[in-house]
Amino acid sequence: MTRPRIGLWLGLAVLAVLAAMAAFPGLFTGVDPDAANVNALLRPPGGGHWLGTDQNGRDLYARIVYGARPSLLIGAGAVALALVGGTLVGVAAAQLGRVADQIISRLLDVVLSVPGLLLVFLVVAVLGPGSSTATIGLAVVSLPGFARVARAEVISLRGRAYVEAAYGFGWSRPQVVLRHVLPNALGPVLALATVSLGAMIVASSSLSFVGLGPRPPTAEWGAMLAGSREFLALAWWPAAFPGAAITLAVLAITTVGRHLQRTVDGSTV
Amino acid sequence: MSTESRTPPAPAPVPSPAPDAEDGAATELVRVEDLTVGFGRGRRRVEAVRGVSFTVRRGEIVAVVGESGSGKSVTARTLVGLAGDGADVRAATLAFDGADLRRLDARRLRALRGRRIGFVLQDALGSLDPLRKVGAEVAEPLREHRTVPPAQVRDEVERLLDAAGVPDPRTRAAQYPHQLSGGLRQRALIASALAARPDLLIADEPTTALDATVQQQILRLLRARAREGTAVLLISHDLGVVGELADRIHVMKDGRFVEEGPAARILTAPRHPYTRALVAAVPGEEIRAAPAPGPELLRADGLVKRYRLPGRPGLTAVDGVSLTVRAGETLGVVGESGSGKTTVGRILMDLVAPDEGRVVFDGRTWGERTRAERRAARRRVQMIHQYPLGSFDPRYTARQLIEEPLRAARVPRAERADRVAELLGHVGLDPGVLDRRARDLSGGQRQRLAIARALAPRPDVVVCDEPVSALDASVQAQVLDVLAGVQERLGVAYVFISHDLGVVRRLSHRVAVMKDGRIVEEGTAEEIFHTPRHPYTTALLAAVPQPRRAARKRL
Question: Which domain holds residue B329?
Fold first, then answer.
C-alpha cells in the first residue's frame, strides 16, 4: 500500500505546481518569456538562465512556466468538451430507444474508425489553426470513447432495482435519469476523463509541434519542441526541457487518474 | 452401537469428563473440547468461537444451529484446517478418529479432507472449478484416492450424481458449472463431497439456496448416508431443516453453545430463551383468518409473457395467469424458482408489459391511462424486493430513501418529517438510522427501511417479492410481524411472492400455487394448506420441513 501512495502524492504535488504555473506564471519567474536576446542564443543551462536559452535567446525556464497554460488548457478543454458531449450522446443512445441507439452507435463507430490524428487535422484544416480549433478537434476525436462508456453505464443501471423503484414512485423518465441514472453513471466517465487528460495533453503538444496549435510566438511546450528541432545537433536543452515538462505532466496526471479509476471501480462493485 | 438405530443418544454432558460408554468411545469420530478461534491481535482480536465442545459419532447427524455471525461456520472450517488466514485456534482437544488434528501438517490435512472428511459449502459456484466439467470434479476424489478402479470411475460418477438427485447425470457430467442451475450445482458439489465415501461429512448450509422439493431430496440423501455409517456435521441457520434431520442439536450464539441436546427435546422443550425464540420463529401451522372480502383492487386476466432466448426455442415465463387481489388482503403466490411468479409481480406493477392479457388496477388497465395518470397510479402499487440493498440508490441515506417517494408525490417539505417519523413507527425503526446509508444497516433494518419506503406513497397494494428469504430465521419472523401489523393498521393489500410455503402461510389469506408459468391451484389459505387438491400443491406441502411434527413423531 505504501508505494502507490507515494506515487499518488508525488503526482498530486506535480499537478499542484503545474496548476499554479498555469494560473499565476508571474509567481514563478519575473522574466518575459517572449523577450528575445540576440546576445544570448542557445546558452546552456546555468548562469543567468536556469534551463538555458533557445535559438532566439529566450529564457527556457520562463517559456516553460508560461507555456503551462496553453499546453494544459487545450488538453483540459478538449477533455471537458468530450466529457459533457460524450455523456449526453451516450445517455441519449441508451435512453431513446433501439433505433436511436443503433444510429448513434454506428456514427460513433465511424468516428472511431478514422485515425484520431487524421481527424484532428481535418477539423483544424477546416476551421483554421489555433488554440480553440485544436481544442474542438481533440474533443471530437475523444468524444466517442466517453459516449461509449456513458452508454454502457446507463444500460447497466437501467435494469437496477433502484431505478425501477424510482419509476414506481411516479417519477417521469427524465426525472429518473437525472436523479438516479446520471449521478451513478458519472463515476466511470470521470475516471476515464482523468486518464485521457494525459493523452490529450500529448496530442495537443503534437498538434502544436506540427504547427496546428496556438500561433507563434506563444510559448507552448509542443511548439517549443518543434522550434528546437533544427538545432538539436548544437544544443540538447531547448528540446529536453519542454519534453521533460510534457512527460512529467502526463505522468502525474496518469498516476492520479489511475488511482481515481481504481477507487471508482472498487466502490461500484 | 448399531448404525440402523436412530434413537438419539443421550445428551452428552459437556465438557464431558469421560465418554459415557465404551461403545460410545469406539464409534466416536470427532471430539472437540474447549475450542476457541480468534482473529486479529491485541485489542483488535475478535473471538468467533469461544470455548465450544462437542462430539460426533459414526452414523450420527449433529447439527450446529445459529444465525449469521454466530461462529458456526468457523467451527466447522476449523475441523478441516480451513479456519482462515490469521486464525488463532486453541482447544483442549481437537481430534478426528483419535488423531490430533493440530499436529497434522498441511499435506496430511489435505489427504484427510478429500478422503475421510467431505466438505460441502453453501456457495456451490465458488467451490466448483469453472473450467472443469462437473463429471471431472466428481471424479477427482475417486481417482485421487483410488476409491474405485479407473475403468469404473465414469459409472461411479453417474451413480453419485444420480444419488444426489441430479437428473440425467450423463448429460450433466459433461457440462460446466455455469451451465447448471444453482440447485443442480449444489447437488453436484454434494456428489463430489460424497465421492470418496468420507467418514465425516461437514455440510455448511447445504440446502439454503434450494427449493423445498430439492431440499427434501438432499436431506434424504444425507440421512441415507448417515444410516450407512457416515457421521454428518450439519451447519445451518434453519431450525426447520435441522430439526427434521439431526439427532442432536447445538444452538450457537455469539461463539458459544447456549443449549445442546437431542433434537426432539430442543424442538419441543427449548430451555434457553434464544432457542425458544428460534423455535418460535420456525413457521408454524397456524393460518390467518381471512378478513371480510374487500372490493376488488387489482385483477389480472390471462397474462402471458414469453422471452426469446438466443438459439433456443422461446421461454413462456407466464402462461395464462389470472388472479384477483382485494383491498386489505394478502394473496400469496407460491412456486419454485423459475415458475414465473416474479414476472407476474412485475407485470402487475406495470414494470413489464404482458404479451397477452391485461391488468386492471382500480377499474382501469395500465394501458388505458394517460402517461400522467399512469405515473400517479403507479404510486399506489409499491414493491419490496428480496435484496433491498439493490433497490436503494447507493448514494442515498436512509432519510433520503424514505423521503424520495414523498418528494415524487409533491408532499410539502414541512409535512415530510412527520410522515417519515410516522413511517419509521410503523416498521419499528429507530430514527437514529436516518442519517446512515443502507449498506451500513443490518439485513433486518434494510428490509424494514424498504417497507417504510414502500408505504410512503400510501399505496393500496404492495408486491412483496421474497421479502424475507435472505434473512435469518428470527429476523424473518420480525419482518413478517411488521408486514402483518402494517396491514392491520393501514389496510394495505399484499401480493406476497415466495418459494417458502411456511412463510407464505404466516401472512396469506388466499394462496395461488404456480408451476411452469401457470396457476395450478388457487384458494383460501385454509383450503390450500388443509385440503390441497392439486398433486403439486401436495408435494410442496410435504416438502416443507415440519420439525415439530417430526419431533413429536420421534418422541
Answer: 298-380+460-545
For residue B46, the surrounding DSSP H or E stretch is: strand B46-57
Compute the radius of gyration of chain B from its Cα atoms: 25
* Statement: residue B453 has pLDDT above 80: yes
Q: Say whether residue B353 is in contact with chain A using an 8 A CB cutoff.
A: no
State the maximum Cα–Cα separation within chain B, in Å, rounded to a whole number: 81
The residues near B455 (Cβ < 8 Å, ≥ 6 apart) are: B382, B423, B426, B427, B462, B486, B490, B492
Among residues B437, B458, B479, the one where a domain terminates is: B458
CATH superfamily, domain at A47-268:
MetI-like (1.10.3720.10)
Chain A residue numbers with beta carbons less than 8 Å from the beta carbon of B378 are 167-170
Mutate to test the interface with B, among A156, A169, A268 (most CBs of B within 10 A): A169
Question: Are residues A161 and B390, on separate chains, in Cβ contact within 8 Å?
Answer: yes
Per-residue pLDDT at A99: 93
**CA A124, CA B419: separation in Å to the nearest integer?**
59
Q: The whole model's pTM is what?
A: 0.68
CB atoms within 10 A of CB A158: 15
Q: Name the domain boundary from B458, B486, B503.
A: B458
Which residue carries 475478535 as its cell?
A: B46
Model confidence pLDDT, tens digit, residues B84-139: 777 888 888 888 888 888 888 878 888 787 788 888 876 655 677 778 888 888 88
Residue B351 domain flag: yes
**CATH number of domain containing B481:** 3.40.50.300
**Which residues of chain B neighbour A169 with C-beta distances below 8 Å?**
378-379, 404-405, 408-409, 457
Chain B within 8 Å of A184 (Cβ-Cβ)?
yes
